[in-house]
Amino acid sequence: MSANTSRKRTDEEQSGHVDQRASPVRTHFGKKVLPPIPKNATPITKPASMGSAAHSANGTHASYGPFYLEYALLAEFTLVIKQKLPGIYVQPSYKSALMWFGVIFIRHGLYQDGVFKFTVYIPDNYPDGESPKLVFDIPVFHPLVDPVSGELDVRRAFTKWRRNHNHIWQVLMYARTVFYKINTTEPLNPEAAVLYEKDVQLFKSKVVESVKLCNSHLFDQPKIDDPYAISFSPWNPAVHEEAKERMFTFKRRPEEHHKGTQVSGLSWVKPGSTQPFSKEDSPPQS
Amino acid sequence: MMASVVANGNRDGQALVLKGVDPETCLIVFKNHWAQVVKILEKHDPLRSSSTLPSLGVLSISSGSSGGSRFGPIPGDEASAVQNYVEHMLFLLMEEESGQAGAMGPILEFVVMENVMERLFVWSLRREFTDDMKLEQLKMYEMLVGQSRQPLLHHKPILRPLMMLLSSCSGTAAPAVEAELVLLLHQLCCVLAKDPSILELFFHTSEDQGAANFLIFSLLIPFIHREGTVGQQARDALLLIMSLSAENERVALHVAENTYFCPVLATGLSGLYSSLPTKLEVPSEEWHCLHKEEWLRLPSLVQFLNSLEFCNAVIQVAHHTIRDQLVAYIYNGFLLPVLAPALHKLTLEEVMTTTAYLDLFLRSVTEPALLQTFLSFILLHQHEGVYILDTLVSRINTPFQLGTVSLSLFRTLIGFYCEDVMLQLVLKYLIPCNHMMLSQRRVVKERDFYSASAAKILALTPSCCSPDRSPPPLRQLDSILFSKRGETPNNSSNTDQQSSFSEEDDGSGNSCTIGSEIYLDVSYLHYLYDARLSISSCIQACQVWSAPYDGENPPPEKYQPGVLEEPMPDSRQTQAALKRVAQLLVPHRRPSLPPSKEPPSITQLELEWDDSFDACPVQADEAPVDPKPPQPPSSGPPKHIQEMRRSAIMLVKGSYIEENDFQDDVLVYDLIAKKDASEMEQTSDEPSGSSSDEAQPGLAEVSVKNGLSLTLPTTVMADNAKTSLKSKVNGQTHCNGNLQNATNTSDDLLAQYEELIHSLVSETGGKQVIADEEVRKPVTVAEEEEKEEEEEKMDFTPFTAETPEPEKLQSPFGSIQRFRSGSSKGSYALPFTGPFISVLLSRLENMLSNTLHVNLLLTGILAQLAAYPQPLLRSFLLNTNLVFQPTVRSLYQVLATVKNQIEELAACRKDFSELITVAQHWLLARETLFITADKTSSSGSNKHEGGKILKNSLPPKPKAISLDQTEVFATVLFSEFLKELAAIAQEHSILSYIPMEE
């Protein structure tokens, strides 16, 4: 799998080191005030009053609204990382943080060996809107997956999307569960539901067929043209060996990295104590 | 002379000459030369014994030189002949390669056998052992040691005369000799560092001397604090020995036990410190700390810093016994006896200067052990019963340069990411979680998924500063923000300017659908980027901390107030600290201060307050500046009653002045309400300070106590102020109380005081009661703003009308009070977030009257605090959903207060928005200057010398606006600060939750 895994965040973290002790004045004194004038800044010709229309009632400036959304999505993404969902990989698209590409690996059960690519669409009024949509690239044969659009019936699990309670990782988790515990009530694919109830053998063979179909399209170009779209290619040592190497050595890297660019804090507090300089190597006293 | 010739000779040339020559020939030449030399030597030898030279161990230097005089001067031609021969011999020796398997070369062997060096040394002793002679000998050895191709020092016949020479130089004062001596010593140390096996020999040799054990080392010590290259070389040489000591315990023990190295170093600091200017010339009002280009102009300071740097280096490389000893000497020999008193000098300038020095020292020290020493001095040392830290914190609130410099010092302190510092400054007050409602504790760790706090903070942006209002380039409102580079030419020009930022930005999965139709505040991106940097470096730094401070660890139950408090009379200390501040202020009334408008000039008030502090009505001798004539005696009620009345009036007026001061108002209202209530009930309960011994005073009582302490800061500093009461009251004649009665006296005072309050309350009528009730409603975040408005609307005129004392009694002593009532917190169970936070917030509250640079420092410190990842601190500063105890002031509340002030101001001044635009333009120009200067000056290093810009390259003063219009600049800064805080809050919601192994 050669998914485009370069994440901006990690790069930033590694370079994100400032010598803060250099001067008692704010290191970024300047940033405090105002941004510099871009060299060739073309004056904005559109009337500035446009923004004021978006002035919301509580005084929040609409100018910042997109930042809130962006950070809410970032927060969601860090949550996904934290959950370490088995067999699920997602990546926000390059073009929009509201669109995430994903792939799910099914490791046992009826759908064993299935590799299903999908896209998550998050409503732009997140988190106050509907639940995110999850659409499989190829409609998997499944009672809860629309046989035409490939959309998973997310709504049944998240009838109302509740901020602070519902998170995108839960949707992903749900997408995984669906393949291990088949639910046939109110199906989007009645055929699959009926077959599962009446003729499991036929259902099974249909599933196997569907899995085969999906896997046969694995190396296709991504459905959506985006630099961060997940794409698969056959194993090519010239390309993949090095990446694999890096993935396996990655775990050691952070420590080495820490030694180099450490902004080291100080502490002489003995764990469990709240007294300063309570450690053994405490300073001299008069 | 000889040696100089040798030294100047072209070594390579010589080597070339010698190269083809076989060693045999060299040896023969050497022997021939030596034979000639010996001839001359023996001719003048008093003993005339050619073959058996007396052991040098017997020959003392003095006998040698006296011998010289006995036998008369040596003819010059003979002396120069010897020189010539020796010169050639040395060349031969130097150029000789060592034999097989490290054996001596034949010449060296001959030198050792014949004891050549000793005899040469004796020869120079025989002649008059002048400085020139020493110089000559020193140079000779310097050359030999430095350039010889085989190890020489292993051989006693070479080492011993060297040591003799060195010890003979120990007392010399001639600069040339000293320089050469240090050079040689440095060279020897280099050899030692390369080949520690010689070390043993040095010890042995000097044992023969019976004198100091490790001569090389002892000789270097006097040069430790020397200026110029000699000092530098000596320090370098010593450092070589120090790093040697790290592996060689013997050296370490010797240095620590048998030498005065550490005491000399530490006391040297004290000596150098005493020659520093006691008062610094302050270049401008913006000045807040010593920058490099400033201290470089002060030679004494450079010298001090050199020595401090040396201490730092020694601690870094030396054996731990030396390190520990040095650190202890610095603590007990410099910090305690010198720096502590210096921090408590009598005039503002002196104290300010010391503070600036301390700040500079802290910034110069890098070694944790030394830093620890300085920090423990600040955090734990008590000078005359007051923690240095308390004193420093209290000084933040002084309106002069001292306040600014103190802010700068704390900026440095916070920048250490030091748990101990943060614990003492802030965290210990937050650990018990008393500052929030009990039900809120779970919120501490809660994650702000949807930037709710950021939104609330940004919503405080004054309407006059709305990003939608200002024209470009002041605000870059743009919709290109989330689109990709390359798609818009405009964006790529942005990239040039802010390359670092845009590079990071590029490649992020941003949305072109998000915000494509909305104008965005582009500058906010910079804040986000900065926030990201400062938070992530802070998170990384705090990994060494002992606890996460997340409201669970350390457990709040375990550290209730009192447990954390040191067992000491807290309030007394604070009082003393404050008193000192007040004293400092006495001789420094600055007429240049703006005429007292709302927050009036603090000077007078401090004076007043200082008077009342001592519970002494008029201290005529100590307050010569007091314009008020001494009160005629016995014209009215007893003095202490007058005093109380005055204080009471000050209380009322003070609260009037601090009308926005939520906390104080609550206390005052509580107090008044309490009086009302007790009047109704015919006062059955005695809310007196003497109840301090009772286990748990009720909340109402507590607030009364606090209220009283507000009013009568000194005398009735209830509760644990007893100690101070005793000492204070005891001294007063009019109180005629002895130690035993002290508390009774205060009871008495309290009772009378209540009366006074009663009268005031009854005069003002029911209005206050209503207000009071409103205020006492539980504070919910939603209601905050309305309530503040209500408070502002309250009419205080009845009080002011009553006031008999004119202007001069107006006091922002709320600010000091707040601090004071704060730091005596341990005893009251009243929620309190510590004096540091209090002082910062109260200065922030006065943002509109602060100068630009004070506000820059202040907001900088707060932003830095907000970047700390500890949930306790983060939630306290940034979580706008957290519900605090009513008496706790939050950053958000203060910001809301400032916002309201700004809105009022903007409403009543027509030209305000124009002024804002001018100020924005000016700040933008300043900013651009800063960035370009930054680029050119520090292209390679990432050290930002921000002060340089502040000082040197200020843009021309804004035309349409004076810098004195602080409120205008403060308004601009305020709205920028909101963005900064909001950005920090947003980044916290991401960064603090990224799994560490990522």
Summed up:
The complex is a heterodimer of chains A (286) and B (998). Chain A is α+β, with helices and mostly antiparallel strands and 286 residues long. Chain A has helices at 8-15, 49-52, 65-83, 168-177, 190-198, 200-216, 237-249, 253-260, and strands at 88-92, 99-105, 115-121, 133-136.
Topology (SSEs and partners):
The complex is a heterodimer of chains A (286) and B (998).
Chain A lengths: L7 H8 L33 H4 L12 H19 L4 E5 L6 E7 L9 E7 L11 E4 L31 H10 L12 H9 L1 H17 L20 H13 L3 H8 L26
Antiparallel strand pairs in A: 1-2, 2-3, 3-4
Chain B lengths: L1 H7 L2 H9 L3 H22 L16 H10 L5 H20 L10 H9 L1 H11 L4 H17 L8 H13 L6 H20 L3 H12 L5 H6 L7 H20 L1 H10 L2 H14 L17 H4 L3 H19 L2 H24 L4 H17 L3 H13 L1 E2 L2 E2 H8 L5 H14 L4 H12 L21 H7 L18 E2 L10 H9 L1 H7 L14 E2 L1 H19 L28 H16 L16 H12 L25 H19 L4 H19 L18 H13 L10 H10 L10 H23 L2 H10 L4 H13 L3 H6 L10 H11 L11 H11 L6 H15 L4 H8 L12 H18 L3 H26 L8 H7 L13 H26 L7
Antiparallel strand pairs in B: 1-2, 3-4
